Amino acid sequence: MYKILVVDDEPLIRTGVKHMIVNHGNKLFSEIEEASDGIDALDIIENFQPHLLITDIQMPEMNGLELIHEAKKKNVNHFVILSGYDEFDYAQKAIRLQVDDYLLKPINQTRLSEILSQTVSRLENKERLLNYNHSLKEIKEPDEKESVRKFKTFVRENYMNDISLSEVAEYMNLHPNYVCNLLKKEIDTTFVHYVHETRIKHAKQLLIDECNLQLSAIATRVGYENSRHFYKKFKQFVGQTPGNYRSEMKRKGEQI
């Protein structure tokens, strides 16, 4: 069963697309989630792990192409772009990002159904290929403790950069799916959660050590290109905003 995430800042568009997907009649799309912007979409992706992302191009905070760029790092591989205009420049960028298709609004039910059928075929072919490759050779299990150590080392040395699951898997010489299962089994976490946790840990230290460093600069230094995403993740992990955390640590320092 496959999952779809629909991202658009217009509620009527999201509702319409979801309705069309349901009417498509292919029961393989069992779950459909929605988000109103790119930042919220990234949070949903971490837990939902969609097989297909359908996103508008023009959205506040983060446009559709930026969202696709970030979603690729979280192991999302299939994308459809929605647009109200036949924008050649965006279409060219979408091709470079290896987007599956490009839909103009108002959305045509028949065209969307064709795209969904093509996506199912691609997903099924990929699964068959994976199963075939696994059947060709006996997979030798790597040393799991050593693999976790390598994973932690890679993240520690690269958390400030634009890293993805595929990159760390290549570094470890393992399949991305194996890395996901390994992290869950050995340290009860996910790739995305561990990267955020590492970034926030270093951000907390910078907030204390670099009192005059702007919050946006700290966000960039620990690997967040978008300040809002940084603030949201910081509050999620620490329970308060970066500014409040800095003020609290400053007060505690003065009391010593």
From TrEMBL:
Subcellular location: Cytoplasm
Keyword tRNA-binding: no
GO cellular component: a single term: cytoplasm
Record's keyword annotation contains Phosphoprotein: yes
SUPFAM superfamilies: CheY-like, Homeodomain-like
Coiled coil: none
GO molecular function, one term: sequence-specific DNA binding
Superkingdom of origin: Bacteria
Keywords: Cytoplasm, DNA-binding, Phosphoprotein, Transcription, Transcription regulation, Two-component regulatory system
Domain Response regulatory: 3-120
Entry's Gene Ontology BP terms: phosphorelay signal transduction system
Modified residues (4-aspartylphosphate): D56
Domain HTH araC/xylS-type: 149-248
Name the record gives this protein: Helix-turn-helix domain-containing protein
Species assigned in the record: Gracilibacillus ureilyticus
